Amino acid sequence: RISAQRIDEAMALYRSAIRADPTLIESYVNLSMLLVQQGKTDEAVEVLQQAVDAKPNDPRPHVQLATLSAQQRRFEQALVHMNQAVSLAPYSGPLAAERAHLLLRSGDWSGAIDAATQVIDRWPDLPRPYLTRGEARIQLQHWEAAANDFESALSFDTNQPGVHYNLAGLYAQLGETTKAVEHYRTVSRLNPDMYEAHVRLGQLLPQ
């Protein structure tokens, strides 16, 4: 853990860097992160707004402002900043995927599905939008479509116990017990401490 003195020193360096070069966006962003760490969120927002004014075409301050707004559960404001960031960096797949996930966090299930689908259509090799779309489809009880999304996510990385857990639950819901058992067993292998997976596996296995 960084000491308070070291944080103060780092903040002073970032402020000095901003004075020397007001267009150095990394300094604003890093300073804002330290301010948040100290519980000074309002001041962090002011710093990021200064960054927007200093370099209006840089998406990074908007991304950080979206992150701070989402942490405060101010999703409408978060989406305003994220939409601005995406418009400034239209060729960034990860940023578009982050916007889709933000829609999911805001509770806009249909919007999240639409946004994630757009990302998948354009950047099919990104795993995150499959997870986002799958989670949104679970909320809408689109079990089979959600399972397909999580299977796609696993094609990028099979060592994801949370994804296997979701798939196990989906297959159990669909009545595909063999697949559900397989995924619960995978969860238990990847994360032996995940007690709930052991319980649900026991419920599915014949006594």
Can you walk me through this structure?
The protein has 207 residues and is mainly alpha-helical. It contains 12 helices and no strands. The protein has helices at residues 4-20, 25-37, 41-54, 60-71, 75-88, 93-106, 109-122, 128-139, 143-154, 161-173, 177-190, 195-204. The longest helix is centred in the first third of the chain and has 17 residues, at 4-20. The N and C termini lie far apart (49 Å).
List the helices and strands and how they pair.
Blueprint: H1 4-20, H2 25-37, H3 41-54, H4 60-71, H5 75-88, H6 93-106, H7 109-122, H8 128-139, H9 143-154, H10 161-173, H11 177-190, H12 195-204
Name the helicity range.
over 70%
- Give the mean pLDDT: 95
* Cα radius of gyration in angstroms: 21 Å
The number of E-state strands comes to 0
* Order of SSEs: HHHHHHHHHHHH
Main sheet record: none
The percent range for strand residues is under 5%
- Uncertain spans: none
Q: What structural category do the secondary elements indicate? A: mainly alpha
Number of helices: 12
The best one-word shape is elongated
C-alpha end-to-end distance: 49 Å
